Amino acid sequence: MQEALQDTGGNNQHDESRRKMERKIQSALQGLATKRRRSVLCFYGDMDQKSVQRVRRIASQLKASNKLSVLLDSPGGYIEDAYRIVLTLREYAEDIEVLVPRWAKSAATFFCLAANTIYIGRYGELGPLDPQMLDLQGSAMLIPALESFKALDQLFIFSLDSLDGIVQQLLNNAPMDIPYAIEHAQPLFAAIVSPLYSQVDPYELGNAGRALATSEEYAMRVMERWGYSEMEDDARRWTVRHLVWNYPTHGFVIDLKEAKQIGLKAERLDHDCDEMCREILELLDSADISGYIGIEVPPPDVQDKENRHEPKGEEIAERDSERQQNAV
């Protein structure tokens, strides 16, 4: 059972080849679902309003299973839309694992925080929760919200270094004590740093702060509600603030070792599944599509085996005892 929705950009010249490619992808996803013994949702592309609608349309296929693997390959998107996708999938699945053979950055990293386990492939990576904002200077490019605060940090460091340098020059070249040197350094110090601070836009800084606070709040909510409910609140907040504030660039690579160090429930994706996932993604790459979301469920015999109750040691002993009594 499957449904795949993709954006082909209106090009119908290669419909048949696309259908063949889709069948290959579906077959590969079926193999992965069998391997993982659970339903598999493949999410390939941006997390935006279109992907929210796609996930909502096909999520009903998950009704037969409460376990879900999400094969995730995404540069990110909008954190609000990632949150909507999380809410949708959590209606159907109590246990969600995310498979990251290549990358899950920004809002896709946020999505991973809502999982019970994150499986990172040999070349897989996550990224900081650094939201992107419209450039108020008029550029069409998005800029990291953290950039304003990093710039302010650098300006503060430059200011301290400038004041220290001026005071040292005065002390070295004129007979004066430190308080007197600081007093006479202030006019020159103000002439150097005032033009720089005058370029700081409070409105832009406020927008950036609000965007960063929003990322923190969403991350805290999903971690507390699902995969990290047993974690101490202070530990959760430390992990979230580290993801939001502590990385110098939006594209910073967070590998498996780093993910574990900051408290995420991350494990190595086993070699066979890693290969299967990357083969699926390579098929999607070669199909030249801008987005793909598909669901496959394991065959009925695999589902039955997964749902079958395996008796524990004490149950086996009790059953054998009953058989012996009945035999007597």
Structural class by SSE content: alpha/beta
User: How much of the polypeptide forms β-strand, as a percent range?
Assistant: 5-15%
Major sheet size, sense and barrel closure? 7 strands, mixed
According to CATH, the homologous superfamily of the largest domain is 2-enoyl-CoA Hydratase, Chain A, domain 1
What are the segments in which pLDDT stays under 50 over at least 5 consecutive residues? 1-9, 308-312
Total number of beta strands:
11
Rg is 27 Å
Please state the second-level CATH architecture of the largest domain.
Alpha-Beta Complex
Q: What sequence of helices (H) and strands (E) makes up the elements?
A: EHEHEHEEHEEEEHHHHHEHEHH
| Overall helicity | 55-70%
Whole-number tally of structural domains: 2
What does this structure look like?
The strands form three sheets. The chain has a seven-stranded mixed sheet, with helices on both faces. It is 55% helix and 13% strand. The N terminus is likely disordered. The protein has twelve helices and eleven strands. Helix 2 runs parallel beside helix 3, helix 5 runs antiparallel to helix 6 and helix 5 crosses helix 7. By secondary structure, the chain is α/β, with parallel strands linked by helices. The chain folds into two domains: 220 residues, 2-enoyl-CoA Hydratase, Chain A, domain 1 (Alpha-Beta Complex), CATH 3.90.226.10; 59 residues, no CATH class.
